[in-house]
């Protein structure tokens, strides 16, 4: 029999900040302890910013911690608080729900324990380590900007307090990013599932990677009625800074096993009577069974539908209409994880890439330009289009975005070449001619700009932008 859990109303009150232990702070930030059940707690710092919520289980065979943070000094503090709350110090396991730094950087605090994660977790940790300098540069640029903003705010306001919290965390994260401390990787991994016998509890781990990261897992403790879902999803927010929980979707190029992910997820859906609480890995997001089930149905519907479309020879471009978020999934649009249509479209692309074993032609073109030069790269990608079973998928919009990327960089030769290729690929699209005309105009080739704006208007007489640009060109204004 599992322990009785907190009523929903009390849980909400706790999430609103009433569980900060008097005197417990970290660098001036309030430290919160939430009791999930008789033998489970969750800890985090701050009242406004989305920080990692570390959970701990008090089992017969020792303490099990779920997730570290990106601040090792905070993990040391959490470890002391956990030991105090449970009245013991025998930590035996740390479980990483996925590879991201805000869940693994503090692993070294538990190097005396066995560290458990999915087999792809370490690879993801190493890959993110390669972005260290970019992270440092971002913090060194954003911190002075935030300091200036705070200096102009009214003290004592929520805006001031929120920004102050953000500043403290950014400074701490910069310090960690600049440190030379090595990462501590998982010491025990699994591919599908794993069970830990802790005497009075069984801790069940299930692979569900492929949405948030390649290494996501669910951690289920049936005797406590708790399912820990990492950063994959939430269906409610308790603050207006959702952080990692704000996007539910897939990215192309992430290694995944969708049938296995869906099978493991479905298995937990079928055990809903054993689950009292769904626990995201950031304190300011909540999750219900309804939201958990709806997001499974979303992935399963897309995966099944896109496989069928590919088998029947449908074109990728048509899937954005067939699986339009507002019409196909109206109950999800605007909910946590689905506030940005771009994320949904990215999921459609990622699944199409998965099902057809193809990759983005525009992304390949960008890389080929860097490696082979402009003309050779354009010729190579154009040749791929004529193949019956090529290795790329082609999307007008992606080529257009690449053209504008070069245009915004002031590299008009590349912009014109990419957008010319796009017009060759999609000769009936008024928009590609409009974009190509803009590139010519900004490059000072006004005659070609006029020609292509006229072609765009022939295809779409309602192209008001093209008409305005022609008027500017006639008046001697280039718009550059």
Cross-sheet strand order for the largest sheet: 1-2-3-4-5-6-7-8
Strand proportion, as a percent range, falls in 15-25%
**Major sheet summary line:** 8 strands, mixed
Mean pLDDT: 92
CATH class of the largest domain: Alpha Beta
- What CATH calls the topology of the largest domain is Metallo-beta-lactamase, Chain A
The 3D shape can be described as globular
Per CATH, the superfamily of the largest domain is: Ribonuclease Z/Hydroxyacylglutathione hydrolase-like
Helix and strand composition category? alpha/beta
Instruction: Please state the CA-atom Rg, rounded to the nearest Å.
Output: 26 Å
The helix content is 40-55%
The unreliable regions are: 3-18
Q: What's the helix and strand layout?
A:
Elements: H1 8-18, E1 20-26, E2 29-37, E3 40-45, E4 54-59, E5 62-66, H2 72-86, E6 91-95, H3 101-104, E7 114-118, H4 121-129, H5 132-151, H6 158-178, E8 188-190, E9 193-197, E10 202-207, E11 217-221, E12 226-230, E13 236-237, H7 258-269, E14 277-280, E15 285-286, H8 289-311, H9 316-322, H10 325-328, H11 341-356, E16 359-360, H12 361-372, H13 374-385, E17 392-393, H14 396-408, H15 412-425, H16 430-442, H17 446-459, H18 464-474
Parallel strand pairs: 5-6, 6-7, 7-8, 12-14, 16-17
Antiparallel strand pairs: 1-2, 2-3, 3-4, 4-5, 9-10, 10-11, 11-12, 13-15
Helix pairs in contact: 5-6, 7-8, 8-11, 12-13, 13-15, 14-15, 14-16, 15-16, 16-17, 17-18
């Amino acid at each position: 029999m599992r322990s009785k859990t907190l009523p929903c109303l009390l849980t909400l009150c706790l999430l609103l900040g009433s569980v900060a232990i008097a005197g417990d702070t970290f660098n001036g930030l309030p430290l919160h302890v939430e009791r999930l059940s008789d033998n489970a707690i969750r800890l985090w710092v701050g009242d406004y910013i989305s920080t990692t919520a570390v959970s701990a289980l008090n089992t017969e065979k020792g303490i099990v911690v779920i997730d570290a943070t990106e601040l090792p000094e905070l993990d040391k503090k959490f470890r002391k608080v956990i030991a105090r709350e449970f009245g013991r110090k025998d930590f035996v396991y740390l479980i990483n729900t996925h590879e991201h730094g805000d869940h693994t950087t503090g692993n070294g605090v538990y190097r005396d324990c066995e560290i458990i994660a999915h087999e792809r977790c370490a690879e993801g940790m190493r890959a993110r380590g390669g972005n260290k300098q970019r992270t440092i540069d971002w913090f060194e640029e954003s911190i002075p900007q935030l300091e200036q903003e705070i200096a102009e705010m009214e003290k004592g306001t929520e805006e001031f307090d929120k920004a102050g919290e953000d500043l403290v965390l950014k400074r701490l994260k910069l310090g960690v990013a600049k440190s030379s401390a090595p990462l501590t990787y998982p010491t025990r991994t699994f591919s599908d599932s794993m069970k830990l016998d802790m005497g009075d509890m069984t801790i069940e781990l299930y692979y569900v990677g492929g949405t948030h990261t390649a290494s996501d897992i669910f951690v289920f403790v049936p005797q406590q009625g708790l399912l820990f879902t990492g950063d994959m999803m939430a269906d409610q927010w308790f603050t207006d800074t959702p952080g990692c929980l704000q996007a539910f979707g897939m990215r192309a190029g992430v290694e995944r096993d969708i049938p296995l992910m869906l099978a493991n997820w479905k298995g937990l859906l079928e055990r809903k009577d054993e689950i009292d609480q769904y626990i995201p890995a950031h304190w300011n997001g909540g999750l219900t069974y309804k939201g958990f089930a709806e997001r499974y149905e979303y992935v399963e519907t897309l995966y099944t539908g896109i496989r069928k479309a590919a088998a029947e020879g449908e074109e990728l471009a048509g899937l954005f209409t067939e699986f339009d978020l507002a019409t196909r999934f109206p109950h999800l649009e605007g909910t946590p994880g689905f506030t940005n249509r771009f994320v949904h479209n990215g999921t459609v692309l990622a699944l199409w890439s998965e099902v057809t074993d193809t990759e983005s032609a525009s992304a390949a073109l960008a890389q080929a330009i860097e490696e082979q030069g402009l003309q050779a790269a354009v010729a190579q990608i154009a040749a791929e289009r004529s193949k019956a079973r090529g290795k790329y998928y082609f999307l007008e919009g992606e080529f257009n975005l690449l053209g504008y990327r070069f245009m915004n960089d002031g590299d008009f030769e590349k912009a014109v070449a990419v957008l010319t290729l796009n017009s060759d690929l999609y000769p009936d699209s008024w928009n590609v001619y409009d974009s190509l005309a803009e590139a010519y105009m900004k490059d000072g080739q006004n005659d070609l700009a006029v020609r292509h704006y006229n072609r765009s208007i022939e295809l779409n007489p309602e192209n008001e932008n093209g008409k305005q640009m022609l008027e500017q060109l006639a008046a001697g204004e280039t718009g550059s």
